[in-house]
Design brief:
This protein is mainly α and 107 residues long. The radius of gyration is 38 Å and the shape is elongated. InterPro entries: UPF0449.
Length: 107
């Protein structure tokens, strides 16, 4: 029994077309009707949402600024608390030594 492998002919695909230029894309967009499905799809996904008003942006900016200021104050307070904790720890250790020394002198 003789098994012969059949080689498949290689299909040559046509080359890809060149991508459109910026001018061609802009021309296509300008010629599209307002009812074009692409524009309605953008509205449904919210990608074509209106820009927030200046007062909204100002409010958001102030909120961000307040957040950053508060965060900085919290970091400073954290540093102060860490220093105070170390001072209290060392004062407590000193107090323990003084109490032991006083007990030793009392005996």
């Amino acid at each position: 029994m003789n098994i012969v492998s059949k080689s498949k002919k290689r299909v040559v695909l046509p080359s890809r077309p060149d991508p459109p230029t910026v001018d061609q894309i802009l021309e296509d967009i300008n010629r599209a009707a307002p009812t074009d499905p692409v524009f309605s799809a953008l509205e449904r996904t919210g990608q074509d949402s209106p820009r927030p008003s200046d007062s909204d942006m100002e409010l958001r900016f102030r909120q961000c600024r307040q957040y950053l200021d508060l965060n900085e104050r919290l970091q400073e307070a954290r540093g102060r608390l860490l220093r105070q904790r170390e001072e209290l720890r060392s004062a407590g250790e000193q107090l323990d030594r003084d109490v032991l020394e006083a007990k030793g002198q009392a005996l």
